[in-house]
Amino acid sequence: MTAPRPALETATMVRAGELSAVAVLEHHLAVIEAGEEAVHAFNLVTAERARAQARTVDATVAAGGDPGPLAGVPVALKDNLCTRGVPTTCSSRILEGWEPPYDATVVTRLAAAGAIAIGKTNMDEFAMGSSTETSAFGTTRNPHDTDRVPGGSSGGSAAAVAAGFAPLALGSDTGGSIRQPAALCGVVGMKPTYGTVSRYGLVAFASSLDQIGPFAGSVADAALLFDAIGGHDPLDSTSLNRPTPRVLSVLDDGVDGMTVGVLTELLDGAAPDVVARVHQAAEALAAAGARIEEVSVPEVTLGLSAYYLIAPGEASSNLARYDGVRYGLRIDAEDTVAMNTATRSEGFGAEVKRRIMLGTYVLSAGYMDAYYNQALRVRTRIIEGFATAYTRCDVLLGPTAPTTAFAIGAKVDDPLTMYLSDVCTIPSNLAGHPAISVPFGPGDDGLPIGVQLLGPALSEGRLFQVAAAVESAAPPLPAPRLRAGMPA
Amino acid sequence: MRADWQLVIGLEVHCELKTRTKLFCGCPNMFGDAPNTNVCPNCLGLPGSLPVLNQRAVELAMAIGTALHCDIRPSTFHRKNYFYPDQAKDYQISQYDEPLNVDGYLDLPDGFRVGIERAHMEEDTGKTSHAGASGRIHGADYSLVDYNRSGVPLVEIVSAPDMRNADQARAYVSELRAILVASGASDGKMEEGSMRVDANVSVRRSVDDPFGTRCEIKNLNSVRSLGRAIEYEAGRQITLIESGEPVVQQTRHWDESAGRTQALRSKEDAYDYRYFLEPDLVPLVPDAEWIRAVADTLGMMPAERRARLVTLLDDAGGPTDAQLLQVATVVDLGLDDLVVEAVAAGVGSGLALARTANEAATDAEAARHLDPEAYVALLTLEMQGSLSATQAKAVLAELFERGGGDPATIARDKGFEAMSEDSLVETVSEAIAANPDEWSRFCEGDDKLAGFFTGLVMKATRGQANGKAVAAELRRLRG
User: Fold this and answer.
1) Does A85 touch chain B (CB under 8 A)?
2) What ipTM score was computed for the predicted complex, to two decimals?
3) Looking at the structure, do residues B319 and B445 belong to the same domain, yes or no?
């Protein structure tokens, strides 16, 4: 078994003409062929389109041109990113048959950077879930243990990178949907500052929380991908019109003199082996020259409750358009209202319906102030709490998820327990802040644990800098069992 | 309206803004194109699409606010959530509790002031047509939706409940329409739906009573329908109250052919729109400089234009009632600049106003496109006596037909050419020389002979001479 080649190295070699993009792609298609049945990371592998893209990259190099910083690197795309002429399902039956007539901005930027879009990855339906079990197209399995979930909602993207199907993947993170599956699958996953990556073409779940971000096998590869997708986009009014931090160049800057706060509230509900790994990561950072403090931000304990009012509220509005009138599934009935009802009843799964009902309720007249508006006030308090912490600390450290990957089916019938798996990641979404999950050794069960670094808005450079230091001190993680016997 | 009852009316007017593109995307804002041709992922509400606010639409909305004397304030957009097939996202982006324009007023031509509570921005929906007997969604065989109108920018102008009779409501809509057109914000075509009026109507027995329960009337497609609907609705409510029944707060549909309103839905089954801040947009906070720049580009409003003409007439002895009507007509048709330019060039204000209100108004479209210099030249020719009134009208018609030209040339081509002063003097002298007896009697004071000489001159010039000019020359020679 050979470790997969890092994306940075692949791109460098392809740009230098030392490696062909087609060969890189064929290698990954062979890995997918061997492992996809066990993992089910993809809703669709776009092999032919990818081959055409790879040939173009090779032709550009042969003609003396530069295809870009991601030359020839396959990237898996979460299936809520619009791809022109390629089905985009959000793992929901309601989008059956729909092919977007346009590409998401991130998809356009990846192509411009020379990346190869290899396929669309499975996810929790409309990104609502923490295990990829709410997908209408079957559960994705964790490559480290196929009886376990990969996390979610971007479970397919996390599993694809962990399984070596693609060196890089994009996900979206509304309450932890990149970081939590990254932790559970033993890969790096990062949620950028709200507004640094364009949401144009990302099918909305909760618009004020959604951000697209990278998955990669290493901090450096995640940095490479983040640099390629960030930056202002006039098509997204919430896109920040200011320079996006470039992160690839700061990875070796070290943590000497930085103050890292261990966020105690995030440790409270976490399993002992997870807590132990967080402390071990803190010690490693101290050894590398950082000052470690314990920091309390009591407001973050309110995050989960606030999140489950704000996100469903926005979702109930964002998902109203799936009414059977214009695209996707339509279940015919005797009149328009009956058709709307039949279509939505058949097209949405139970978790999506639960959140639409919850969201409709919290926005309704007479309840809005007690629920939705109260949640917005909590959101403000969380931002203020973080602001206080960041007067003392450069970054905060905590677990990404309270436990390692849980068994498929273990929480699927208990939504509240399932929701708790996002308790550590949600505060960053509510604050609009960046955060990154870095693998840090196995837990007692041998499965990956991720530690999370949190920073204030636009602190991506600092976060990646610390993440690189954490990564270099991380205990080795066993290779995914699935990789044994796969093409190298 | 019975004398012992008082009507209370507030109006909500939606107007489509005359932008090149839609409110949140780059699709053409065009009425009458083939269905579903001016659409894109955004205005079709496709998954993943996002709104981007149209700067020009904001400027036109601010122009409306300025023209209505509103405060222009920092504002936000909300989502108004309800399911309807012509609504692409199943929510409408609209300004809610923080509208762009608040607290203005509109003065009716008679001076009555109507308060403006707010004028806010929102997007239009698509258009549904229902096939089947009823023509309504209920019981339709099938329905077709055209999304060309989806996302067209609207401003909704909400008046205070200040109007007290149907005439005021009609005057308000007419004046508002004129303001919207004059500000360049909208073409104000009620018949094409670019201006839509809903009326809130209630009745009470005395001005001292609190407002009665109101009903909102929809589907008012003309100023005439508005007046009829208000009067019908007031009568309906009075009859209810007088027979001891309560007025129920309702939305009612005006049936133009039946001449009555019908209940659409009552307050109890009103939609819960679940308004919340639109997370895909950022607050709209126009700075003072932008607000001033918009105000600077705003032309004169109709009230100001009317006052300007009245001032011109004042200088000439004050407007008559007939002239006040002409002023209203001329301003309404957007022809007042022609009058002002003519007066500035020395044409009498009465003549300039009358010709514009009576003749130019017959083809206002052509008149608006006419080179004002040509128009002024024509009126000058008439005033100087070089063209008779009848000839001037004929030349104007020709100017319209050709889309411009030199009135003197047209007059010559028509054989109207007025005589030069020299040749007039010469012709008069010839007539005198040929008729010395008549001339002596005229000189002795027989004024009737002026007609004799004028007739001779006219005959000699085949009608080209100006009668007044001939008479003046005769008087001059007599001394």
Assistant:
1) no
2) 0.96
3) no
